[in-house]
Design brief:
The structure holds two protein chains of two kinds. In chain A, strand 2 and strand 3 form a beta hairpin. The termini of chain A are far apart. Chain A is built from three helices and ten strands. By secondary structure, chain A is α+β, with helices and mostly antiparallel strands. In chain A, the strands form three sheets. A five-stranded antiparallel sheet of chain A has the order 7-4-5-10-9, with helices on one face. Chain A is globular and about 50 Å long. The longest helix of chain B has about 260 residues. Chain B contains nine helices and five strands. Classes of the chains: A alpha+beta, B mainly alpha. At the A-B interface, helix 2, strand 4, strand 7 and strand 8 of A face helix 4, strand 1 and helix 5 of B.
Chain lengths: ~200, ~600
């Protein structure tokens, strides 16, 4: 939050920081709730007025930091439109769940534009609501009984610059799926909609 | 005059004007009068009331004053009485104080006298105590002297008495010895004569016996020689019979061999060397044939193993076939669904086309917002058409992939995923680019899984090769694997068994030692040795008992002990009557028995 001058002013960079921080905690919550990593590898911390769980796995932390750092740059350059967390079966490579975060950016804003006014606490409350819904989604999502792993897909514009460590990926869609729309939050510059798609078990 | 008239008229006018005013003022005054009258009446009533109250208050005041005077009189009389009482009490106090002072002086004097007396008495007590102590010391000294003198006297007497006793005992023993010697000597004298006669007889017998002895020795020696010769002859006889039998059997065998050989070769001389050569050749042939049999068995087992493996492969291929068939069916279902969706989409497209046509037919003028709406609808239509083309191309690709994946067993992930969802409502992947980090956790997990499976495969293959090399003659590789795994388990189980058995043995030994020790301690403490003769029956034998057959039998049932009849219990009827029947106490009975036996034992010891 280095570029926020007062409690209610939000710049493009500040909004990118808020959104990437949300993704960090949101992805950690998804990994904990869906049991992708063992629960004892998570530690608690307080954020947004909630007790959140974040991983202590060094490799996972390194991967997340790289991806979110790049995501933040793409948020500032307004190239990213969607972030998808894909959960797949390791043995059969079948996609079991997709957590889609659609990102809409104010197209007129730039890095040197005037900051927009929105109360930081209100943004944090909205983020809090989204993360609570993610934890509550355990009630209706089917159990993942097989060993699973996750991947982060980023949907970008065709003209965006992509570093060498990144590669093209298929969308990992789920045939015969059910979709549930969750809450959204907005920093007045970026708006993030959350939805979860899971395999129809009927 | 005119002025006067004017003024008069004016005045008359003013008077006329003033009349109503006057009337009004009269009315107002009358009303005020009435008000003042009513007020006056009220105030008069109030005045009357107040007068009445004043009269009541005056009466009250007079009453109060009379009471006050009465009270004052009472007060004065009481005050006088109290003053009189005060004076009398003061006089009494003075008298009492005087008495107290006198008493105090008397008390002091008595206290002083008493102190003096106490001091005198204490002095006397001390003196008497000293005298008592002196007397006591003297008494003790005198007692000690007396005791010493008495001890001395008694010791002297004791010594004298003991000396006398010893002398007398010595004399008695000497006398007894002398008596015994005299008796023995008398006996011996009487025996002497008889002994001489017997002596002569014995000497003659001795001579005869010596002669007999020499003869018998010679005869024994001859006997032994003859026996030895007899044994030798018997052994020779046995050997003879054996050799004769061997001779007979050998001759028969020879004849048989000769007959055998003569059967094969016609009238040729048969030599044992030839026979042995023939036999060795036959043996070699037999060994060669056995080796060939072993080789053939091994080949047979290998062929059986190969057959089993092939059967397994056939089973696997059948399963794979079934899986591919089911997948094909699923994909056929998917294709049907997609075709249905296609139909729906095409129908929607037609409906939208019709809507657009209807709009075009309705609209005659090119109005700005409607044209925009039409353009927007047309753009949506174009998008739908593009999406339709995409879905159709993807469907075709899926079909081609399905037909291509029929023989090898592979999972078609990308094709089904791309067939799945592309509906004209949301997913707009055609204009977007999807990227992901190369070293992502999903790919890493899949790679590690594949490597683990490869390593497992390699280890299993190596095990297989080892097993096939070590045991080629045994059965197929699968049972060998099964044997190898439980052999390690059985070894561990056997070790556990031996350890458990050792523990059990140690526990048993320890238990035996402690139980034996406990039984010995119980025997030493109580004097009774308790043995379990049969179920619920306990045999008790005492350490002071005269014989081993003196034992008691008790039976334990329902938490109670009963004494059973034995030979020894019939001898203890008195104790049984007093302690068991009379007091119903087994410990008392047993302790009385021990005391009785102990007293018997000590009596015997003393007697001995």
């Amino acid at each position: 939050m280095a570029n926020v001058n007062s409690a209610n002013a939000v710049t493009l960079k500040g909004s990118a920081d808020i959104v990437s921080e949300f993704f960090n905690y949101g992805i950690n919550s998804i990994l904990y709730q869906r049991g992708i990593y063992p629960p004892e590898s998570f530690t608690r911390l307080q954020k947004y007025g909630l007790t959140l769980l974040v991983t202590t796995n060094d490799k996972l932390q390194h991967y997340l930091s790289i991806v979110l750092k790049q995501l933040r740059e793409w948020l500032i350059s307004k190239d990213v439109h969607r972030l998808v967390v894909v959960i797949s079966n390791i043995d059969t490579k079948e996609t079991l769940e997709r957590w889609e975060f659609k990102i809409e950016c104010d197209k007129d804003i730039k890095t040197n534009s005037k900051p927009k006014q929105k109360d930081i606490k209100e943004i944090q409350n909205e983020i809090k609501g989204v993360i609570r819904q993610i934890t509550a989604s355990v009630t209706f999502l089917p159990l993942l009984e097989v060993p699973c792993a996750f991947d982060l897909l980023i949907f970008m514009g065709k003209e965006a610059e992509v570093p060498n460590e990144w590669a093209e990926s298929p969308p990992y869609l789920i045939p015969d799926s059910e979709e549930v729309q969750l809450r959204s939050f907005s920093t007045s510059i970026h708006k993030v909609d959350t939805a979860v798609t899971y395999k129809n078990t009927e | 005059m005119k002025q006067l008239e004017k003024s008069f008229s004016i005045l008359e006018n003013s008077v006329e004007d003033a009349e109503p005013l006057k009337k009004r003022a009269c009315i107002e005054l009358e009303t005020e009068m009435e008000k003042w009258k009513t007020a006056y009446e009220r105030e008069a009533e109030k005045f009357v009331k107040l007068k009445a109250t004043v009269r009541r208050l005056a009466e009250k005041q007079t009453k109060a004053e009379s009471e006050l005077n009465h009270l004052k009189e009472q007060f004065t009389t009481e005050r006088e009485e109290h003053e009189k009482q005060l004076l009398s009490s003061q006089r009494l106090c003075k008298q009492l104080e005087a008495d107290i002072n006198e008493l105090e002086t008397e008390k002091c004097e008595t206290v002083q006298e008493l102190h003096h007396k106490i001091e005198r008495l204490q002095g006397e007590v001390k003196a008497s105590n000293e005298e008592v102590e002196n007397v006591k010391n003297q008494m003790e000294l005198a007692k000690k002297h007396v005791l010493k003198e008495e001890e001395m006297k008694s010791n002297m007497k004791l010594e004298e008495a003991s000396k006398k006793i010893k002398e007398l005992e010595e004399k008695l023993s000497a006398h007894q010895e002398d008596m015994a010697c005299v008796q023995s000597l008398q006996k011996e004298l009487s025996r002497m004569v008889e002994m001489e006669e017997e002596n002569q007889k014995l000497q003659e017998d001795n001579r005869i016996l010596r002669e007999f002895k020499t003869n018998s020795i010679l005869l024994h020696e001859k006997l032994e020689d003859f026996q030895k010769q007899q044994q030798e002859f018997e052994s020779i006889k046995i050997q003879l019979t054996k050799t004769q039998e061997e001779n007979v059997s050998l001759t028969s065998q020879l004849q048989q061999w000769k007959s055998l050989k003569s059967d094969k070769d016609s009238c040729e001389t048969i030599s044992p060397s030839q026979v042995s050569r023939h036999i060795s050749q036959l043996q070699k042939n037999v060994t060669l044939l056995k080796n060939e049999v072993f080789m053939l068995n091994g080949k047979k087992q290998e062929l059986e193993n190969n057959k089993l493996q092939l059967n397994d492969k056939i089973g696997k291929f059948k399963n794979d076939l079934e899986n591919t068939n089911t997948k094909l069916q699923l994909q056929d279902h998917l294709i049907k669904r997609l075709q249905k969706k296609l139909l729906l989409v095409s129908k929607e497209r037609d409906s939208y086309k019709r809507v657009i046509d209807s709009y075009e037919s309705e609209v005659t003028l090119a109005v700005g917002p409607q044209m925009e709406r039409i353009q927007w609808l047309e753009s949506i239509l174009a998008e739908y058409r593009v999406k339709l083309d995409q879905t159709e191309s993807e469907l075709n690709q899926a079909r081609e992939q399905l037909l291509g994946n029929f023989q090898p067993v592979k999972k078609s992930e990308g094709s089904t995923q791309t067939d799945a969802v592309v509906l004209p409502t949301q997913q707009d992947h055609s204009q977007m680019r999807i990227v992901h980090f190369k070293n992502n956790p999903l790919d890493l997990a899949i790679q590690t899984r594949v490597e683990d499976l490869r390593q497992e495969n390699m280890t299993l293959k190596a095990k297989l090769e080892q097993l096939t090399q070590e045991k080629p003659s045994t059965s197929s590789s699968l049972p060998c694997q099964e044997k190898c795994d439980p052999s390690s388990d059985t070894g561990g189980l056997k070790e556990q068994l031996t350890v458990a058995e050792l523990k059990n043995k140690r526990l048993l030994n320890a238990f035996r030692k402690t139980s034996q020790e406990f039984r010995e301690v119980c025997y030493l403490l109580t004097g009774f040795k308790i043995d379990v003769s049969s179920q619920n029956k306990y045999k008790m034998s005492h350490m002071y008992s005269e014989s081993e057959n003196d034992y008691l039998l008790f039976e334990y049932a329902n938490g109670r002990l009963k004494l059973l009849e034995t030979e020894y219990s019939s001898q203890l009827q008195e104790l049984i009557d007093t302690y068991l029947k009379g007091h119903n106490s087994i410990p008392a009975f047993l302790s009385s028995l021990t005391l009785e036996l102990f007293s018997q034992q000590t009596y015997f010891l003393d007697k001995n």
